[in-house]
Design goal:
Radius of gyration: 24 Å
Number of domains: 1
Protein name: Lipoprotein
Shape: elongated
Keywords: Signal
């Protein structure tokens, strides 16, 4: 590039920068903060849409130190069950998707294993603590109840904090029955929006975010056990 063209390009850049700064200089501090919040909410909305338009496979559950410690105590049945559920949930090759239902999104969790293997996998879960085949068969209702339990490994961290277990998955069908929507940031200040920007789901106080490696972290907080993490990885679909 000729020297004259370089100088001209630099001048154009300086003018553009000056014009942009001049526009901001005309704004009050309140207007600048409102503009910054608008830009941040737009970024948050993009993150939410990126997450809810993708398919996510269950990768791993990272229990908190307190949850692990509790699982090793005599009174740690709840902690043990939670860790064991997460361990065996891997056997069902679960994939999370979202579908629009009016103003909300309905999560769905597919189990990508042959239907005839579902009972075998649940029985393996039930018999593991005993070390032998104490359970040999399940009724249809029992099977669906356990499938609901395994789906909650993924579903529960996404649900609103005040939802009961039977409001998240159905014991009768084994399927997810709750819905989600993006958090409303309109009443928050800019500073509060910054602090809450990873708390994407309305009514859910936990953080959800995409990591540098493309995996998705869904934090799940317990008053007894602290913060554990559910890790999902995106299912890459082949182009048609």
């Amino acid at each position: 590039m000729k020297k004259r063209n370089v100088i001209f390009a630099l001048l154009l850049g300086a003018v553009a920068s000056f014009t942009s700064c001049s526009k901001d200089d005309d704004l009050t501090p309140e207007e600048i903060e409102a503009k910054e919040k608008q830009e941040l909410v737009a970024k948050i909305t993009t993150n939410f849409e990126t997450i809810t338009t993708a398919q996510w496979a269950y990768k791993e559950f990272q229990p908190s130190d307190d949850l692990l410690a509790a699982s090793e105590t005599e009174d740690g049945a709840v902690a043990k069950t939670r860790i064991m559920d997460a361990k065996h949930a891997k056997n069902f090759n679960m994939v999370l998707t979202f579908s629009a239902d009016g103003e909300v999104l309905k999560p769905s969790i597919a189990m990508n294993v042959p239907e005839e293997e579902l009972e075998t996998k649940v029985l393996a879960y039930l018999n593991e603590p005993w070390g032998f085949e104490l359970y040999t068969e399940l009724s249809d209702n029992e099977l669906k109840s356990y499938l609901a339990q395994f789906r909650r490994v993924i579903a529960a961290p996404l649900a609103a904090d005040d939802l009961a277990t039977d409001d998240i998955t159905s014991e009768e069908t084994g399927l997810c029955i709750f819905s989600i929507s993006m958090r409303d940031f309109s009443e928050l200040s800019y500073d509060d929006t910054v602090l809450a920007q990873k708390k994407l789901i309305e009514g859910n106080s936990d953080k959800i975010y995409i990591n540098a490696d493309g995996t998705l972290t869904v934090e799940t907080t317990s008053t007894d056990y602290g913060v554990s993490k559910l890790i999902l990885e995106e299912v890459m679909t082949s182009p048609k």
